[in-house]
Specification:
Blueprint lengths: L2 E3 L26 H9 L116 E6 L12 H7 L14 E5 L6 E5 L18 E6 L1 H6 L23 H31 L1 H7 L31 E3 L5 E8 L17 E2 L2 E2 L7 E3 L4 E4 L2 E8 L25 E3 L1 E3 L9 E8 L11 E8 L7 H4 L27 H4 L43 E9 L7 E9 L16 E3 L5 E3 L4 E2 L2 E9 L13 E8 L9 E6 L2 E7 L24 E8 L16 E13 L15 H6 L1 H5 L8
Parallel strand pairs: 10-13
Antiparallel strand pairs: 1-4, 2-5, 3-4, 6-7, 7-27, 8-14, 9-10, 11-12, 12-13, 12-27, 14-26, 15-23, 15-27, 16-17, 16-26, 17-18, 18-22, 19-25, 20-22, 21-22, 23-24, 24-25
Main location: membrane
GO molecular function, one term: glucosidase activity
Subcellular location: Membrane
Length: 765
């Protein structure tokens, strides 16, 4: 706690010097004797501005007179201008000149503290001189401190700084040398080793005692580890102005014009260039790059749209053995193609079947599923069992076994022997896989590479097929195909009615009788139950959408169906067709011009004489096959496929083009299945090239409704091999998924789960 002493400037009594160390107290003009001598001489300053130091006291007086041995501060009567640290102006006319102990040749602070060490005798440290209370500074001391011998209007300032380690004079240094190196005196110390020391304020109005403001040196302190404190130093602006100017002084002189030569501002140019570069970089990053990315990824984004297996950013869940839509094994050269229409196509789905041992039971594969049913709609004589479908040697293998086969292991995937009782009462067991409600596409090109079953091209009885059907019908589930297959119609007229007859059942005449029909259908044009989801549907009716005024159905386009050539004694052919409903009279289609129907390879392709029956109208071509693409003769894989384009906004440009072995075979357009109005017509309107999302079906069947079965030409186990399945679509116009916005199917299927999950249901409920 600081102690404020009386304003009479009575310094505290000085401590007694240590024994045998009285000589260390140097003669100083600040001793009281100097004050007395100076006053006796009239207080006139010398020419040098300082009085001569008095003789030091003898050692005999060191212990008896604390007054004569006590160093005191001196004051100056030089002209003095008040400052923030010395606000009281000097009185040069009334105060005698006193030697200023703070004067120095250079008043700037140094690295050492300016102070004098006083050796205190521990044995006399408790004595205090009571006569000190009557002493005070000379009258001039109340006027402030100044520089001796310096006139003018400038004053010095007494400042303080933190004492450094160098400010503690080593014990080996004498008091005289310490005092000689310094022009400042330390504050007087109280006897008894007290840690309180008195200081004089720069205002000259009072004495304030502060704890540890002027710390003892480690040698003189009662506590060798005394902390550092503040030490005073004198700053004189006049001395600073007389010093050599610093290098940076011209920066603060407003009159200075500078001494640098005019140079080109390269730094400024570079700064502006960097700013422009940063702005351009930010624009590229946040404006140009997003726009570029959008246009570059437009095709990818359109491919993502409608795909239920990935999210809007193209991310798919990482599941166990979850293959991509495009098989990584698909060669790069096969990932694009030029279409028959001259358009560029890109791959959107492929399966190369390179992994051996795959199974296709429900839930085994994300895209394919093998069915477990009897395909009664076509009167087949085999049971479709998932065990008959697997992969081997880079191909999908569908095996047909016979109950007459008694030897096991004839082929790696044969399940024979078995009895008809073990096979649902049927003699033959085969397989069918389909992508129903898992993968669908709308418009594009699909291609398969196959080896047909049988010993050679004369095999007669198998019904291998690769085909597509609208997702609203599930192949083999009759309740889902009833009223859906093979409708591709968006008109509200008699074509949507059962049997294509009027409400009264009395017409039109073409629907009541057709010579091209069959006796089992009473030669009636149609036995269909009517279009279930027609454009005539009433609001709120059971309709898949998107509106009740949109005609919906499940059309069929066949990649191929293979059979023995009925028009020749030898050879094999494939039928490539599209099924439509409702029907024109006598199942006729327009084929007078190439923009309706066209055959590209007449040497191997011909129109199919079969144009339909009471359950379908077919537009079909027959294409001859090479003899080396069979299981027992050559096993040469042959490509078969079709390309089609459906556009509800421009029906005139829609078409289907088939190919075999890489060569176009024939083409049908929407003009071939146009309206059948007028006299003799069935009264139907335009049928459409299928616009529905189409699923893929691969199967190996056998039915007398397909062709006459000659077991002598067949072999069991028979294997139908598919090397790959690839689907392409026009570049930038990807449309895959079984639930597209324009032709949704999901809600309708979910609302009729029993029909889509039970093969025994015959009617949709």
């Amino acid at each position: 706690m600081a102690a404020v002493v009386r304003d009479e400037y009575n310094d505290p009594p000085s401590p007694s010097p240590r024994q045998n160390e009285g000589a260390r107290l140097l003669q100083s003009p600040s001793l009281p004797a100097a004050f007395q001598q100076q006053q006796q001489q009239g207080g006139q300053p010398g020419s040098s501005g300082q009085s001569a130091p008095s003789s030091p006291p003898s050692s005999n007086h060191a212990h008896t007179s604390s007054l004569s041995g006590r160093p005191t501060r001196t004051a100056s009567t030089a002209s003095f201008i008040s400052s923030p640290l010395n606000p009281t102006p000097a009185s040069p006319t009334s105060a005698p000149h006193v030697i200023n102990p703070f004067a120095s040749a250079r008043s700037r602070p140094t690295s050492r503290a300016s102070h004098m060490e006083l050796g205190l005798s521990h044995s006399h440290s408790h004595h205090r001189d009571t006569t000190m209370s009557s002493l005070g500074p000379p009258p001039s001391f109340t006027s402030g401190l100044g520089m001796a011998g310096m006139g003018g209007a400038r004053g010095s300032m007494l400042l303080y700084r933190l004492a450094s380690e160098d400010d503690h004079t080593p014990a080996s240094m004498s008091a005289a040398s310490s005092l000689r190196d310094s022009h400042l005196l330390p504050p007087p110390k109280f006897p008894g080793g007290a840690n309180r020391e008195s200081t004089i304020s720069s205002s000259g109005s009072s004495f304030v005692s502060l704890d540890s403001k002027y710390p003892l040196t480690n040698r003189d302190s009662a506590f060798p580890t005394a902390p550092r404190g503040l030490v005073p130093y004198e700053y004189d602006p006049a001395m600073d102005e007389m010093a050599t100017p610093d290098d940076e002084d011209f920066l603060h002189d407003p009159k200075t014009t500078g001494f640098r030569k005019s140079t080109f501002p390269w730094r400024g140019v570079m700064n502006v260039a960097v700013l422009i570069f940063l702005i351009l970089a930010l624009l590229c990053l946040f404006v140009f790059y997003p726009v570029l990315t959008f246009y570059r990824n437009e095709a990818r984004n359109s491919r993502i749209d409608g795909n239920i297996r990935i999210n809007a950013t193209g991310q798919a869940p990482v599941l166990f053995q979850m293959p991509d839509l495009i098989d990584l094994a698909t060669p790069d050269a096969a990932r694009t193609r030029t279409g028959f229409d001259g358009q560029q196509y890109e791959l959107v789905f492929s399966d190369e079947f390179t992994e051996d041992g795959r199974t296709f039971y429900p839930g085994d594969d994300p895209y394919w599923e093998a069915v477990d049913l009897w395909y009664g709609a076509t009167g087949d004589i085999e049971w479709y069992d998932p065990s008959q479908v697997t992969t081997r040697n880079g191909s999908l293998v569908i095996t047909m076994d016979s109950a007459d086969t008694l030897q096991s292991g004839l082929t790696p995937n044969s399940t024979a022997p078995f009895t008809p009782d073990q096979n649902h009462g049927l003699n033959y067991r085969s397989g069918m896989v389909q992508t129903w409600n898992k993968f669908c596409f709308s418009s594009g090109y699909i291609e398969v590479s196959v080896v047909l079953p049988g010993p050679n091209e004369d095999a007669q009885g198998y019904w291998p097929g690769a085909w597509t059907m609208g997702n609203l019908a599930r192949p083999g589930y009759p309740a889902t195909t009833d009223g859906m297959w093979p409708y591709t119609y968006n008109e509200c007229d008699v074509g949507t009615f059962p049997n294509q007859t009027n409400r009264d059942g009395l017409g039109p005449a073409a629907a009541l009788h057709s010579d091209q029909s069959r006796a089992k259908y009473n030669y009636e044009l149609s036995w269909l139950s009517g279009q279930r989801a027609s454009a005539c549907s009433c609001p709120g009716s059971d309709h898949p959408g998107p509106t009740v005024k949109q005609g919906r159905g499940a059309p069929e386009i066949d990649i191929f169906e293979a059979e023995r050539d009925k028009a020749a004694t030898t050879g094999h052919v494939v039928s490539q067709s599209a099924q439509f409903a409702p029907f024109t009279h006598d199942y006729l289609y327009n084929n007078a011009t190439n923009d309706q129907w066209q055959i590209f390879s007449p040497n191997v392709t011909r129109p199919n004489n079969y144009r339909g029956s009471a359950v379908q109208q077919a537009v079909s071509g027959i294409v001859q096959l090479r003899p080396d693409m069979f299981q027992g003769s050559g096993k040469r894989f042959t490509t078969v496929g079709f390309e089609y384009w459906a556009n509800p906004n421009n029906i005139a440009e829609t078409y289907i083009t088939w190919q075999v072995d890489g060569v176009q075979s024939h083409q049908v357009t929407a003009a071939a299945v146009g309206p059948d109005q007028g006299a003799g017509g069935s009264g139907v309107g335009q049928r459409r090239i299928p616009e529905e999302p189409m699923s893929i079906i691969l199967n190996l069947g056998m039915s007398p409704n397909w062709q006459t079965i000659d077991l002598s030409t067949l072999m069991f186990p028979a294997e139908f091999l598919i090397d790959y399945v690839r689907v392409y679509q026009r570049k930038g116009q990807t449309n895959i998924g079984c639930n597209p916005k324009a032709f949704p199917t999901e809600d309708y299927i979910n609302n009729h789960k029993e029909a889509y999950q039970s093969t025994s249901s015959l009617l949709l409920v």
